[in-house]
Design a protein that fits this description.
single chain; 439 residues; alpha+beta; Outer membrane efflux proteins (OEP); disordered N terminus
């Protein structure tokens, strides 16, 4: 065995820990940086933030109908007409294309001082709608952060698998070189060389496919972060799984922090306030009004060719619904049903969250067990590969056995990274349901 071949053996073992040199040269994107970029740039968060800002702007006494409305008006009409007037003494006055004009302008104020307390219910409803917008924004943030974290650790999983395929490539290249040397000196048949070349090509294909999958996942994470989709980077190798989550603690957090629960409770309150506004229609509405008006009328013919006037007006009006075809009763019944539906939605959301937590927590526990199992399998497969490669170096083992050990190690590494990824996904999902998704 030459020094070159011994160096290849050492490199094969080293790549299992270090990964490809190209990946190492890329910029390291930490999870904290990825989440920070997404929170600043993600379009869903920005759109939800705009909706929340609109709901905040809508909370005003004027929008609730508590403040008076002031309107200014001006009207200016002009006429050209032929006029004829016969007086009582028989005198006839005629004007051809006589000009006339009417000018009116003024300022009026109308103020609803009582509408059955509907304006107060409307103002509180606007406040609840603002809170609903904030809950929707929180949901958008949670969903986006969950997507970032899930995609990030998907890259971590794929990166680990790339390292395994890199190791397989180095070993397969060594087998091809060894088989070629053995064939050239007459110690091996061409079949051994052909088999080694086929395995090398197979491993190369697997590596290329894995690189393609890794690149596509990079593009997807860039899209979530709303940055250049062609940016390349590498991620950390550490999953850092929290294995101490408890179902009881998660359930309590979900009742207090889950945005869907908050939204359901707010929707019930909004429905109750809407019912108050409907019932307010049974009570009278009282308006105050005042204003200033000026008018001027000019005519070419008549007893008065010019008249003007100006002054203040003020007054009050009241109205009450006595009968409107039983529509008031129907509207109140429908509003009451809406309140009942909102309460049912609260119960439905609570049940859905309980079911999601129970199922996700069971899967989370199973994945934690699988992580420990696959970690042990990977360690055994690594030891087996080291021993097999040493025996292959000494010439005391067949190429078939080398290939088996090689595939066992790759498959064990893939299963281990998958188990870690699924366990981390379970943790992220549980924290997202609980409304407590932290780094």
């Amino acid at each position: 065995m030459t020094l070159y071949k011994k160096g290849v053996f050492a490199l094969a073992l080293l790549l299992g820990f270090l990964g490809a040199g190209q990946a190492e040269a890329q910029e390291l994107l930490t999870l904290e940086d990825a989440v920070k970029i997404a929170l600043e740039r993600n379009y869903n968060i920005k759109l939800s933030a705009n909706d929340t800002e609109i709901a905040k702007n809508n909370v005003s006494r004027g929008n609730a109908g508590m403040l008076p409305a002031v309107t200014g008006t001006i009207t200016n009409n002009n006429t050209l007409q032929n006029s004829s007037q016969t007086r009582a003494d028989g005198q006839v006055n005629e004007v051809n294309w006589g000009r006339g004009s009417t000018l009116n302008y003024g300022v009026g104020l109308t103020w609803t001082v009582f509408d059955g307390f509907a304006m107060f219910a409307r103002y509180e409803q606007l406040q609840e709608l603002q809170k609903l917008g904030e809950a929707n924004l929180q949901q958008a943030v949670l969903t986006t952060v969950g997507d970032v974290m899930g995609t990030y650790f998907e890259l971590t999983q794929q990166q680990a698998q790339l390292q395994a395929y890199d190791t397989a490539i180095v070993i397969s290249r060594l087998r091809v070189e060894t088989a070629r040397n053995r064939f050239e000196i007459g110690k091996a048949a061409r079949l051994e060389l052909l088999n080694a070349q086929v395995d090398f090509n197979t491993d190369t294909t697997n590596l290329l496919r894995q690189k393609n999958l890794y690149r596509n996942t990079q593009i997807r994470l860039n899209q979530i972060m709303a940055r250049d989709v062609n940016a390349t980077f590498r991620v950390t190798d550490n999953f850092d799984i929290d294995g101490n989550l408890t179902l009881g603690q998660l359930s309590n957090q979900a009742q207090e922090q889950n945005p869907s629960v908050k939204a359901a409770i707010l929707n019930r309150r909004i429905a109750e306030l809407q019912a108050d506004q409907v019932r307010a229609a049974r009570l009278p509405t009282v308006n105050l009004n005042t204003g200033y008006n000026f008018n001027r009328n000019r005519s070419a013919l008549g007893f008065s060719t010019l008249s003007t006037g100006n002054g203040l007006n003020y007054g009050a009006s009241a109205s009450v619904n006595i009968f409107n075809g039983f529509n008031q009763r129907r509207n109140e019944q429908n509003a009451s049903i809406q309140v009942q539906s909102a309460q049912l939605q609260i119960e439905q959301v609570n049940q859905e969250i309980s079911a999601q937590l129970a199922a996700a927590y069971q899967t989370y526990l199973t994945n934690l067990t699988l992580v420990r199992l696959e970690e042990n399998n990977r360690r055994i497969a690594r030891q087996n590969l080291d021993i097999t490669l040493e025996k292959y170096r000494l010439g005391s083992i067949t190429t078939v056995e080398v290939r088996d050990a090689q595939l066992n190690y790759v498959n064990a590494t893939v299963r281990y990274s998958n188990a870690q990824y699924q366990a981390k996904l379970g943790e992220i999902g549980l924290r997202e349901i609980a409304g407590n998704l932290t780094l």
